[in-house]
């Protein structure tokens, strides 16, 4: 039996700055996971991923990440995504300073 599709978001790295970014429903790239478009349909997820991959001058390494719906929007479902969402761990500035 096929596994049920779980909610996803499109994430990538900003080509110039290297920050983790998320595709929003209005086609912006945001550094806040809470602003990411929550995708609950597999076909729509693939279309959104293709849209992200069509921007090689803006992003690198786009992929679909599994998420859970939290009180403020999408939240990471796996450790890797939680780690990426908080930013680099070797210094306290940027996203780390907000924690």
Give a topology summary.
Blueprint: E1 8-14, E2 20-23, E3 29-30, H1 42-53, E4 59-70, E5 73-76, H2 79-86
Antiparallel strand pairs: 1-2, 1-4, 2-3, 4-5
Outline the structure in words.
The chain has a domain of about 70 residues. About 20% of the residues lie in helices and about 30% in strands. It has a five-stranded antiparallel β-sheet with strand order 3-2-1-4-5. It is an alpha+beta fold and about 100 residues long.
Largest sheet: 5 strands, antiparallel
As a whole number of angstroms, the C-alpha radius of gyration is 13 Å
The SSE string, one letter per element, is EEEHEEH
Number of helical elements: 2
The termini sit apart by: 41 Å
DSSP strand content: 25-35%
Number of strands: 5
Shape: globular
Quaternary state reads: single chain
- Spatially, the strands of the biggest sheet line up as 3-2-1-4-5
Low-pLDDT parts are none
Mean of the pLDDT scores?
88
The helix content is 10-25%
Summing up helix and strand content along with how strands pair, one would put the structural category as alpha+beta
Protein name: DUF2849 domain-containing protein
InterPro entries: DUF2849
Pfam families: DUF2849
What does this entry show, briefly?
The chain is an alpha+beta fold and 99 residues long. The protein has helices at 42-53, 79-86, and strands at residues 8-14, 20-23, 29-30, 59-70, 73-76. A hairpin with a 5-residue loop joins β2 and β3 (29-30).
Structural features:
99 residues; alpha+beta; 5-stranded antiparallel sheet; globular
């Amino acid at each position: 039996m096929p596994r049920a599709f779980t909610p996803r978001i499109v994430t990538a790295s900003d080509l110039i700055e290297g920050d983790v970014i998320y595709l929003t429903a209005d086609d912006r790239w945001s550094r806040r996971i809470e602003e990411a478009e929550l995708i609950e349909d597999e076909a729509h997820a693939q279309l959104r991923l293709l849209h992200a991959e069509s921007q090689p001058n803006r992003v690198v390494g786009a992929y679909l990440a599994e998420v859970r719906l939290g009180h403020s929007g999408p939240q990471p479902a796996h450790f890797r995504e939680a780690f990426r969402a908080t930013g680099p761990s070797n210094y306290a500035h940027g996203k780390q300073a907000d924690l």
